[in-house]
Structure formats: C-alpha cells, structure tokens
Amino acid sequence: MAANFNSADIAAFKNVWVFCEQRQGKMMPTTFELISEGRKLADELGVQLCGILLGDNVDGIAKELGGYGADKVYVCNSPLLKNYTTDGFTKVIVDTVEDLKPEILLFGASNIGRDLAPRCAARLHTGLCADCTHLDVDLDGYVNFLRTGSSLDVDNMSFESKLFDVNKNLKMTRPAFGGHLMATIVCPRFRPAMATVRPGVMKKRVYDEALANKVEIIHPAFELNAEDVQTEVLEVVKAAKKMVDLIGADFIVSVGRGISKDVEGGIKLAEQLAEELGGVVGSSRACVDAGWISADHQVGQTGKTVHPKVYVALGISGAIQHKAGMQDSECIVAVNKNDTAPIFEVADYGICGDLFKIVPLLIDSIKAAKAAK
Asked: pTM (2 decimals)?
C-alpha cells in the first residue's frame, strides 16, 4: 500500500469512478449503464465522474464514455492488460486509486467485476457491497425511492445518524435473504465506497456526441511487470450457448405459478404469444425454483431487471421481488384469476380470468390484427 494512502482519511477522497469493462477492444453494455448512473451520483455530490479503462491500445473506445456522462477517462494501456487477469488488473486499479483517491468506485456485477472488485476492496482496506440494484447519495432521493419501492412508512422514520453524515454517504441497496428483503448498506468509515451493480438495472442515458468531444483522456503513470501477473492467458475460446436475452427484449411474456395445472401447456402458450409479439419468454422465481423453466428466464430481484416496451405477466401474483424487476416496463399487461393479486397494482391493463382461456384469444387477436394490415 502507498505510504500516503489511508482509506480512513475520508476528506482526502473525491470524485466518482467507474471501472469500464472492455473485452477484446469492445466496451461491455453494463459500462454505459454504470457511467450513466455514476453521472447522477457525481451530480448529487458536486464532483467529477471518471472512468478507468484498462487494456492494450484501447484509447479508441474511451471517447464514447464521455457521451454517456464521463468528465474524464483514465486509460491504462499495456500488453499485459490485453487479456483480463486478476493480478494484473488488481494491481493497476489499486495503484491508481491509491494515487488519485476517488470517493466512490463502481464495477459491473459481471464475471470479471465479481472477481476483480473484492480483490481491490481487500487491498484498499475498504468495504464492498455486491450485486446492487439501486444507488443513491442524496438522502431525499433515497427516501423517495423507499416511498415508491417499499412498504416502509418513511414519513414517520428518522434517517439521522450520530456516527456519520447520512447525506454524504453512498447508499447501496441490494436483495438479501434470497430476495425476500432489500438491504441498504453504507460504508461510512472508509473510502472509496465500492459496489458491484447488477447488469440491466440502471438506465442508460441518451448518447451525446458533444459531451463525447469534451471528455478528457488521461494516461496515469503505473508500473506493471510480467512478475506481477501470476497467470498467463494462452487462448481465448468463445463457446456458443443459447440463452434468452431478457435485458435486450422489447416484448417479454412471463409465466408464474398460475401455470401449475398444466406447466407444459402454459409455457407453450407463453412461447406462442411471445413469438407473435416478436419477444421472449420470462418467468417468476417460483417457476425456476419448481424446475419448470431455466434460471436465465427469471425476472426479479434475484433474476434480471428488465425494461421492455411491453411486459405480459401470465399467472404471476406480483410479489415485491418480482415487481422490482419489471415495474419500469413501458406497458404492463397482467392476466390472473385473483382480482386482488398485487400484480394489478403496477399493471397498465389487467385481465381477471384463466390464462389458459385468455391467452389463446390474445394470440388470435394479434394474428387478426397482423392479417388486417
């Protein structure tokens, strides 16, 4: 650890940083989501937003980060950083953080982010909150989030603390106890406050070319030798695996416990409706836990957070864990036999009835509408 670095010296730290993950010269989509969210946090703190980008000759993709809100991008180029290694990336990030002292450092909760962030946090002697689904600095913004996204009586709660300034600490919210609770965590005694953020939960800003042209590209000094990297990547092999793309889908048809009387038939109906809409099939956690459908279809706090144009919920009661993963959809259509099901609270259109009778009618109506064009 650098001689002048003290993670407990809170006043010495400033600015919001985002680890900008790239693979083989291509920026990962989660990076743009984190830059967009980081812009919000930096504005709340009145500081700058900086990206830190590691790779080999990756200057060409750094400018794009400015278009999503970055003020600066620290680019670290080295042949030893061409392929990801835990040792190499950790050393460069830790050395740069110790030198420049950001107050917040965000990573995507990807395979790389989940491996890299805890190693960095341990070296920096600071805390890390993993798999976050919501971030706030401003206390009023956090209270509004609780007011709309929880059942807490926030108007009769106190958020003051005698130990630290609540309004200056990053409030990191994540699912706990298997998604049955949401926990908000702060790191008041050490910096940087670190978090990994679940892909798909943060909204990407609209790209601004003018901002991209203004971003400052900086090449910080760092040392990295072959002896610092204990592993060598001999070959990168890409394996093709067919998985449902929930995060990128415009139309999602999800099934829940309501298909239990005919699981195979219920999933088939959902597939047919999704096909007519040009979308994909999702599910609640209950279906995944029961073994009816694979985990890559799961929507919710412990699954994927989605923002499609249309979300159709078939036989889903609407537990808070599921609603948290889909309630920001542009249009929500719910079909459920129980007219008091919580899903109707967030639905734009609600149909109370048997999904096995209603879905075939929906499919026929869509087919008729297509034929009429």
From this structure: 0.75
pLDDT for 250-274, tens place per residue? Answer: 999 999 999 999 999 999 999 999 9
| Structure tokens, 364 | 């026929």
Structural domain for 144, as ranges: 10-228
Reading the block at residue 241, the tokens are 């695996």
Confidence band, pLDDT 50/70/90 cuts, at residue 246: confident
pLDDT (0 to 100) of residue 324? 80
* The two structure tokens encoding residue 252: 């999602």
Domain for residue 352, yes or no?
yes
Cβ neighbours of 269 (radius 10 Å): 23
The residues that bridge with 331 in the sheet, in sequence order, are: 310
Q: Does any domain span residue 89?
A: yes
**What is the tally of structural domains in the chain?**
2
